[in-house]
C-alpha cells in the first residue's frame, strides 16, 4: 500500500516534465497518496543542498516539523495548490541536475536509506537513460520506482517518443524556417547545429520537416569532401541557400582532414588545440565550395526551455497517470513509453538494453533528394 510518492526530474530539463508532475500530483490526490517533490534529481535523494543529518532518524515518525523545514532545499511536499500552476511553466519546477556520485553503489544505498527514513514508499523518475539507470539501482535497493521518459534527445530504444522531443523538433523547425528565409534573401547556405546527444533524431526530423538538403548525425561517419561536393552540386543547380543540419557530437566523427591547416592556408587564424565547430564547418564549406558565404547558427538551449507542444503536454499527462496507476497496483521497476502511439509500460531492465534503430533510409533520403 503506497502512502507517499516522491517525484524527481533528472538529466537535461525537457518540455513536458512539469506537466508530468502535475499529472502525478492529480492522480496521487485521487488515490489519497501524498506527493513529495525531490529537487535537483538524485542530488535531492542524497540531501545535498540541505546537508540534513539523517543519522539520528530511524523513520518518518522521528521527523519533526522543523526537520521537514530544514529538508526543504531537497524535499518538499507538493500539494495540489502548489503544483496546479506549473503545468504550463517552462523548464522544470523541481529543478534538475547531473549527480555524478549516483553511479556509485555506496551513494545508491545511502539514497535508498534516505528515502526509507523519509517514508517515501515509491519514486517517479522523469529523465532519460542515465536517470533510468539510477532508478534501476534504487529498485535493486528495494525502492519502488517508475520511470517517465523525459529527454529532448529521443534516444531511448524502447519508446517511440520521449517528453520534450516533439517540442525540441518544433523549436528547431521554426528556427530553420527563419534561417532559410534569410539564406534565400542573401543566397547564403546555412549550417545549423541541433542537440540530441548521441542520437540524430532531432536533426533528421528537423531536416525532413524543413526540406534541409543535408544532415550529419552522430550515428554515421562522414567526410567533408562528400558534403562539399553535395553543396557545390546544389549551388550549381541554382540552390544557393541550401541548409546543412549538423547534430552535436558529430565533429569527432569526421574522416581525417587537416582542417586547421586548410583554414590557415585560406588566411584564417586557428589555434592548435581548437576543436571543430559549426562556425568552422561553415568556413570549410566556404573555401571548399568556391567562396559560398555559408553562415552557422547553434540552436542550443531554446530547444530545452521551450513551451511544451500539445503532443508533449498530452503525453506527459498520460505518463503521469499511468505511473500512479502502476504504483497504486504495486507494479514497480517499470518505465513508461509509447508504442504504436499508445502509452505502455515495461520493466526498466528490459527497456535499458533495447537499442534505438537508426533510420538509415530517412538519412539517405535527406542527403540525396
Ligand atoms: P539522462 O537521464 O537524460 O540520460 P544523464 O545521462 O545525465 O541524463 O543522467 C542523469 C543522472 O542519472 C546522472 O547525473 C546520474 O545522477 C544518474 N545516472 C546516470 N547514469 C547512472 C548509472 N549508471 N547509475 C546510477 N545513476 C546514474
Ligand atoms: O540530454 C539533453 C541534452 O540537451 C543533450 O542533447 C545534450 O548533449 C546535453 O543535454 C547537454 O547538457 P548540458 O546542458 O548539461 O551541457
Walk me through this protein's architecture.
The chain is α/β, with parallel strands linked by helices. It folds into two domains: 205 residues, Rossmann fold; 139 residues, Rossmann fold (3-Layer(aba) Sandwich). The chain contains 14 helices and eleven strands. The strands form two sheets. It has a seven-stranded mixed sheet, sandwiched between helices. It has a four-stranded parallel sheet with strand order 7-8-6-9, with helices on both faces. Helix 1 runs parallel beside helix 12 and helix 7 packs across helix 8. The longest helix is centred in the middle third of the chain and has 22 residues. The model has no long low-confidence stretch (mean pLDDT 97). Bound molecules: adenosine-5'-diphosphate (ADP) and 6-O-phosphono-beta-D-fructofuranose. Adenosine-5'-diphosphate binds next to helix 6.
What key phrases describe this protein's structure?
369 residues; alpha/beta; Rossmann fold; seven-stranded mixed β-sheet; four-stranded parallel β-sheet; 14 helices; 11 strands; binds adenosine-5'-diphosphate; binds 6-O-phosphono-beta-D-fructofuranose
Q: From N to C, what is the helix and strand string?
A: EHEHHEHHEHEHEHEHEHHEHEEHH
Q: State mean pLDDT (0 to 100 scale).
A: 97
CATH class of the largest domain: Alpha Beta
In this entry the ligands are:
adenosine-5'-diphosphate, 6-O-phosphono-beta-D-fructofuranose
The number of distinct β-strands equals 11
Decide which structural class fits the backbone: alpha/beta
Alpha-carbon Rg, integer? 23 Å
The share of residues in extended strands comes to: 5-15%
**Number of discrete helical segments:** 14
Number of domains: 2
Would you give the CATH topology of the largest domain?
Rossmann fold
Q: What separation lies between the terminal Cα atoms?
A: 57 Å
Amino acid at each position: 500500500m503506497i502512502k507517499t510518492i516522491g517525484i524527481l526530474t533528472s538529466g537535461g530539463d525537457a518540455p513536458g516534465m512539469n506537466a508530468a508532475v502535475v499529472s502525478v500530483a492529480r492522480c496521487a490526490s485521487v488515490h489519497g497518496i501524498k506527493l513529495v517533490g525531490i529537487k535537483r534529481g538524485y542530488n535531492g535523494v542524497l540531501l545535498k543542498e540541505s546537508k540534513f543529518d539523517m543519522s539520528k532518524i530511524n523513520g518518518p515518525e522521528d521527523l519533526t516539523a522543523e526537520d521537514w523545514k530544514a529538508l526543504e532545499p531537497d524535499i518538499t511536499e507538493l500539494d495540489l495548490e502548489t503544483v496546479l500552476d506549473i503545468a504550463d511553466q517552462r523548464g522544470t519546477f523541481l529543478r534538475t541536475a547531473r549527480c555524478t556520485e549516483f553511479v556509485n553503489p555506496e551513494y545508491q544505498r545511502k539514497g535508498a536509506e534516505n528515502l526509507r527514513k523519509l517514508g517515501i514508499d515509491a519514486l517517479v523518475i522523469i529523465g532519460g537513460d542515465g536517470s533510468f539507470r539510477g532508478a534501476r539501482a534504487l529498485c535493486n535497493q528495494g525502492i519502488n520506482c517508475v520511470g517517465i521518459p523525459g529527454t529532448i534527445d529521443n534516444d531511448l530504444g524502447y519508446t517511440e517518443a520521449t517528453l520534450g522531443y516533439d517540442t525540441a523538433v518544433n523549436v528547431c523547425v521554426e528556427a530553420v524556417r527563419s534561417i532559410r528565409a534569410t539564406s534565400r534573401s542573401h543566397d547564403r547556405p546555412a549550417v545549423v547545429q541541433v542537440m540530441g546527444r548521441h542520437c540524430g533524431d532531432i536533426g533528421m526530423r528537423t531536416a525532413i520537416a524543413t526540406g534541409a538538403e543535408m544532415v550529419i548525425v552522430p550515428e554515421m561517419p562522414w567526410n567533408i569532401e562528400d558534403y562539399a561536393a553535395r553543396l557545390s552540386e546544389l549551388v550549381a543547380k541554382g540552390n544557393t541557400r541550401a541548409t546543412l543540419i549538423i547534430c552535436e557530437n558529430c565533429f569527432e566523427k569526421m574522416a581525417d582532414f587537416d582542417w586547421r591547416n586548410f583554414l590557415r592556408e585560406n588566411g584564417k587564424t586557428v589555434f592548435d588545440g581548437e576543436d571543430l565547430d559549426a562556425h568552422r564547418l561553415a568556413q570549410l564549406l566556404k573555401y571548399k565550395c568556391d567562396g559560398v558565404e555559408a553562415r552557422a547558427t547553434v540552436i542550443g538551449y531554446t530547444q530545452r526551455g521551450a513551451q511544451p507542444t500539445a503532443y508533449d503536454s498530452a503525453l506527459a499527462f498520460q505518463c503521469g497517470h499511468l505511473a500512479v496507476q502502476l504504483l497504486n497496483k504495486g507494479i514497480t521497476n517499470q518505465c513508461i513509453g509509447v508504442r504504436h502511439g499508445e502509452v505502455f509500460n515495461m520493466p526498466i531492465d528490459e527497456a535499458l538494453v533495447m537499442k534505438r534503430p537508426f533510420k538509415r533510409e530517412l538519412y539517405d533520403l535527406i542527403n540525396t533528394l
